[in-house]
């Protein structure tokens, strides 16, 4: 679980609800199903009109997934360097077949790594491996960030539908002006709730989720770029120490891999 994400979400809603409870005893006035329906329903409707259903559903699933910890962290990047160096020693000793036997378990649940290893084992040149893997990295990143754009559009749509709901409420309120004047204040409060809901959904849910997903995809792209460079160096039959120095140049100095200290 990503505890910082959970704390952030609880903190955002906690501060909002807490400020309401401190300011008024009539907190029920902030609850309106019709306002909620206008904002959420309108946002979803506009999104399904704009994008294919499959991508919209994937985007909604990603909102939930941000509460889970990312698969790639700083220490994993250092481990990737160590793994590539281990494979470089295997290739140095037994040729490409040594890489195939060493990488069997590692690539089992990693399609990108499996694809890269297969290219090296197949005997492609370093330049060919680099070209193919760079293309894979970029196209994968492009596909996986479609959901980011969808979430950003949802963040833009939510306040707009909130304003639409407010205008609808104002029209209804003005239509009832000939009645009891004391009811106008309550009608205006309900009308303003849709704008409030729209801003909350945009700024607390959709935009933060989009930023989190984008950041994680950027980390995945960086990791894949790092691994691709290592596999290219193996294909080019570079020495393990050269591979170490080249891959370390991608990383923060605090997590550099050191063959003499870290190699097991």
What do you see in this structure?
- This protein is mostly helical and 264 residues long.
- The chain has one domain (32-264).
- It has eleven helices and no strands.
- Helix 6 packs parallel to helix 9.
- The chain is elongated.
- The protein starts with a helix and ends with a helix.
- The model has no long low-confidence stretch (mean pLDDT 89).
Key features of this structure:
11 helices, 0% strand, mainly alpha, 264 residues, 78% helix
Report mean pLDDT, rounded to a whole number: 89
Q: How many structural units, i.e. domains?
A: 1
Name the shape in a single word. elongated
Q: Helix segment count?
A: 11
Helix content: over 70%
Radius of gyration: 26 Å
Oligomer: single chain
Distance between the termini: 30 Å
Task: List the helices and strands in order.
Answer: HHHHHHHHHHH
Biggest sheet details: none
Structural class: mainly alpha
Number of strands: 0
């Amino acid at each position: 679980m990503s505890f910082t994400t959970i704390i952030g979400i609880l903190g955002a809603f906690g501060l909002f609800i807490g400020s309401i409870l401190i300011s008024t005893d009539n907190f029920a006035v902030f609850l309106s199903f019709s306002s909620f329906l206008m904002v959420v329903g309108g946002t979803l409707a506009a999104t399904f009109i704009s994008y294919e259903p499959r991508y919209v559903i994937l985007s909604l699933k990603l909102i939930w997934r941000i509460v889970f910890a990312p698969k790639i962290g700083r220490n994993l990047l250092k481990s990737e360097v160590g793994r590539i160096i281990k494979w470089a020693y295997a290739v140095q000793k037994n040729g490409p077949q040594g890489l195939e036997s060493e990488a069997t378990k590692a690539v089992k649940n990693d399609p990108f790594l499996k694809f890269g290893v297969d290219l090296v084992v197949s005997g492609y040149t370093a330049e060919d491996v680099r070209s193919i893997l760079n293309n894979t990295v970029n196209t994968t990143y492009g596909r996986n960030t479609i959901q980011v754009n969808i979430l950003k559009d949802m963040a833009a749509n939510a306040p707009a539908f909130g304003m639409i709901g407010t205008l609808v409420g104002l029209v209804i309120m003005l239509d009832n002006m000939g009645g009891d004047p004391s009811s106008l204040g309550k009608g205006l409060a309900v009308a303003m709730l849709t704008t409030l809901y729209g801003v909350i959904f945009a700024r607390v849910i959709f935009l933060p989720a989009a930023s989190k997903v984008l950041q994680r995809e950027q980390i995945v792209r960086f990791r894949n770029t790092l691994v691709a460079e290592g596999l290219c160096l193996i294909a080019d039959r570079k020495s393990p120490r050269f591979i170490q120095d080249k891959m370390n140049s991608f990383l923060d100095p605090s997590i550099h891999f050191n063959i003499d200290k870290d190699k097991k």
